[in-house]
Amino acid sequence: MSLDIKIAWRNIWRNPRRSILTISAVAFACMILVFMLSFQFGTYETMINSSLKIRTGHLQVQADTYQDKRDMRLVIPSPSKVGKILKNTSGIAAYTFRASAFSLISSEKRTYGALVVGIDPGREAGVSTLPKLIREGSYLTEKDRDEALIGRLLAKNLQVKLGDELILLGQGRDGSIAAASVKIKGIYSSGIDEFDRSSIQIPMKNFQDVYSMRGAVHEIVVIANHLGDVSGIKTALGKSVAELNSKKLLVTLDWQELMPGLIQGIKIDLIGGIIFYFLLIIVVAFSILNTFLMAFLERTREFGVLRAIGITPGRMTRLLLLESLSMTALGIITGIVFGGLITLYFQAHGIEMGGSSELLKQFGISGKMYPKLSLLSALAGPAAVLTITFLTALYPAIKIRRLKPVEAMVYV
Amino acid sequence: MKKWRLMSFVGSLFLLIGLNQDSSALDPQTLVKDCFNYMRGEASFSTIDMTIHRPDWQRVMKMKAWTRGESDSLIIITSPPKDDGNGTLKKGREMWMFNPKVNRIIKLPPSMMSQAWLGSDFSNNDLAKTDSLIKDYEHRVEGIDELDGKKVYRVRSIPKPEAPVVWGMLKLRIREDLVLLAQHYYDEDLEPVKSMTTSEIMLLGGKLFPRIWVMKKTDAKGEYTELKYHQLEFKRGLPKTIFTLSNLKNPRR
């Protein structure tokens, strides 16, 4: 076997230019695949984090079935107890409390049904991009009481501006009628129409008063240090939170459960990417097939002689396969190394997105994209290349078996 | 001979069809309209207790209600003290709410009509569109049952083609003396959504009237809203001034 390897290796370098071209083609394809896959994964991570930081967070603790029913009475009765557990869980960057009630919001001219959300202004800043999205006026502070933030579209619908008064009318936790008057302190715009049209934010203390919450909240929103930490946090929290023994069972939901549309969107994009990569590999495979076939045709006399001196067809096939495998291997390793280096460089420095970066910065998303190198992104592409080039090389390798030594030896 | 046989056959067919019609010729549209008018009267004043019951919780609100004609009504809450003074005014298909704490009258936008009224199992629509029963539906009597010696008509109501209603079908149970025993609500797929049943039929306000009304969503266990009439007076008429926004804010009675 080692003799075959030596022979295969020497065979490759008998025509250095062609071999280098083939190896380069493979290397180039692998480099592209490594970089693009890393870029795609990195972009997903950025996309996911940006979407989640607007409202949902990486995880949420809620009362069981609140996610579906959104009933006022499905509360977390003692949020501070859950807060203590969160402080002692690793991987958590920040958390905040929220409570919401769908209510009538009435301005002087119009009335709309919308969500009134009680937020903790200090903690909220660490969890969502809301403070950065304020276009007019200013964000809520700890001292505020009867002030409110409103989305730009909702403000337009209600025909109100900064400083105008809004009446909130809804139902409290105990079923009583909740009514309050608030003044608009800030108007925000997140770029997501749905969000800008559907809610107003008031300080949690005021919310708990008006809606008779008795200190309870509806959601505890958690941001993790890294996207990858989420499942670990979910397991750790899930048990300890359920054991809290409150009257309502508490559950921990991760972002896939909170925003199922997000992961669907990513899957679709991934499939699109995979189709592109597949086509790329096919093109490379054809060019490699071309090279091998040419080599095969050129060396017909050589094969004829080999057969004449007694080499078995099987051994010849193995020889050819070893040749192609060695070239492919060289190409793949080069491709992974260079592709990895390029990816790591941009992972550290980021890629400016050009025109759209200005637009993205407005929404708290930095204009830079960071590719993310991982074992999967480094090896998946090259592995596919390896498989397909191997299959491609099979064709000439098997064709060799049919060679008739006498005819081959005198082939012109 | 043949001709005679054919004619007698046709003649007997007509006879059969004729006999099939109930000789009292009960018109379902009239039945439902009469029931509606009976239950509503020309005008009324009542005091009602509304109990909202959930598996782990219950709340009772007391209220005063005035109705006039087919479409005007005013409801003011009197208890518990936290909610005292809140009111709902309905005129035609429009609804307003008043809250004394913020001292504001708010007109209910169409988007809120399907929301619960004061947190109960009744929706704002249920209150606003009480007269839709006689205006927007075609009725058919499906059968006649007997209960306590009285006939009970089972009526099926299908919305008219262009009718602005949220229900796909209603089923009513009307007693022969025009007391409404039950009303079942079905969605566009004809799946049951909620039901209202009445009970404790007694002399109230001078006629036989159910004292207890219960509204219950079909798939909700242990959840219902109960209305209990304490006082009910049917009147010939009530002043128009009662059903105004200024009266909603400052009820005179």
Topology summary:
The complex is a heterodimer of chains A (412) and B (253).
Chain A: H1 2-12, H2 16-54, E1 59-63, H3 66-69, H4 79-87, E2 92-106, E3 111-119, H5 121-127, E4 134-137, E5 147-151, H6 152-158, E6 165-171, E7 177-188, H7 193-198, E8 199-203, H8 204-210, E9 219-224, H9 230-242, E10 250-254, H10 255-258, H11 260-298, H12 300-308, H13 313-349, E11 351-352, H14 355-362, E12 368-369, H15 375-399, H16 405-409
Parallel strand pairs in A: 3-8, 5-7
Antiparallel strand pairs in A: 1-9, 1-10, 2-3, 2-6, 2-9, 4-7, 5-8, 6-7, 11-12
Helix pairs in contact in A: 1-13, 2-11, 2-13, 2-15, 11-15, 13-15
Chain B: H1 2-20, H2 28-40, E1 43-54, E2 57-68, E3 72-79, E4 87-91, E5 94-99, E6 104-107, H3 124-128, H4 132-135, E7 137-147, E8 150-159, E9 169-175, E10 180-186, E11 192-204, E12 207-217, E13 224-235, H5 245-249
Antiparallel strand pairs in B: 1-2, 1-13, 2-3, 3-4, 4-5, 5-6, 7-8, 8-9, 9-10, 10-11, 11-12, 12-13
Summarize the structure in short.
By secondary structure, chain A is an alpha+beta fold. Chain A has 16 helices and twelve strands. With 253 residues, chain B is an alpha+beta fold.
Structure keywords:
heterodimer, A: 412 residues, alpha+beta, 6-stranded mixed barrel, two-stranded antiparallel sheet, 16 helices, 12 strands, 56% helix, elongated, B: 253 residues, 13-stranded antiparallel beta sheet, 5 helices, 18% helix
Can you describe what's shown?
The complex is a heterodimer of chains A (412) and B (253). With 412 residues, chain A is of the alpha+beta class. Chain A is 56% helix and 19% strand. Chain A contains 16 helices and twelve strands. Chain A has a six-stranded mixed barrel, surrounded by four helices. A two-stranded antiparallel ribbon of chain A has the order 11-12. In chain A, strand 6 (165-171) and strand 7 form a beta hairpin. In chain A, helix 2 (16-54) packs across helix 13. The longest helix of chain A has 39 residues, at 16-54. The mean pLDDT of chain A is 87. Chain B has 253 residues and is of the alpha+beta class. In chain B, 18% of the residues lie in helices and 47% in strands. Chain B has five helices and 13 strands. Chain B has helices spanning 2-20, 28-40, 124-128, 132-135, 245-249; strands at 43-54, 57-68, 72-79, 87-91, 94-99, 104-107, 137-147, 150-159, 169-175, 180-186, 192-204, 207-217, 224-235. Chain B has a 13-stranded antiparallel β-sheet. The longest helix of chain B is centred in the N-terminal third of the chain and has 19 residues, at 2-20. Chain B is elongated. Chain B starts with a helix and ends with a helix. Classes of the chains: A alpha+beta (412), B alpha+beta (253). The interface between A and B is medium-sized, with 19 and 25 residues.
